[in-house]
Amino acid sequence: MTQSENSSRMDSDQVFHDAIHGSMELPPLCVEIINTIQFQRLRNIKQLGHAPFSHVFEGFINEYRKKAGGEEWEHEDASCEMLEHLFKENPHVKVERNDIDFIKDLITGKPEKSQRPKFLYQIINNKSYNIDVDKWDYLARDSHFLGIGKSFDHERMIKMSKVISDQICYRDKTVDNFFDMFYSRYRLHKTAYKHKTVLLFNKLLGEALKSANEHLKIFEKVDDMKKFTYFTDSILEEILKNEDNGNLKEAQNKLKDIINRSYKYKGTVDDRNDQGEEPGNIVCKAKFDYGARKRNPLVKIPFYKKGNVFL
């Protein structure tokens, strides 16, 4: 491609295809951001906008920080730091300071002295009633790639949404769709996120990372965005490939237990106390709900009926 052809291409919208959302047309500025090393990091992690292994790692590092007397780490804050780092390392990507701050507020869902409409902060990280595009994306994406399908139609929910009194509200006839969405969430937790084997693997993974941390400084990488850029799921290969390093032997054995499934397991995965635990066995426990613990998750969602009347 010649320089003029490349320049012409960057001056026009480009079409990308996504397995969940289909074809999307993005403007040149978005394409410039996508083409940075910091954004392309997402190719090498299974969960978008996170550290490796998503919320599992978040639990590991916060346990580590609590023991060390440090502050709690949240992936939303890391996303904001990475955003700042992205623009610092790529000065050719021109975005106004107030727009960067706005994006960061959208990520955290906590606007700082913003004069913009409140409903804008309910789109990505909705602190009001926990319905947002982030939730729709991961529920639809995980259901698809796990091969279990989904019963809710997020596109219909979007089309049936409306801003009333500065908040995003939904037509009353979408209530069944929301019920299906929360059931999909429950099913994913039951069959995948909190399956007994997954919980066991998570426990072994945590032990492996903690063991390797002293040598590889794993938990420090989240505080340095240059290191965090290359901190991806490949950390497992980094541990395993250093077979001559005695400092990583324990971590390597834990990972090999996961790969070879050479472990013991006893107990059930629910909210009851497990009885009869034997030495050497690992017992995993989990609780399941529909997203609001013991409360009905539909209660806080603002619904309206024809004529823009609240229910």
Automatic annotation (TrEMBL):
It comes from the Eukaryota. One of its GO terms (biological process) is dGTP catabolic process. One of its GO terms (cellular component) is nucleus. This is Deoxynucleoside triphosphate triphosphohydrolase SAMHD1-like. One of its GO terms (molecular function) is dGTPase activity.
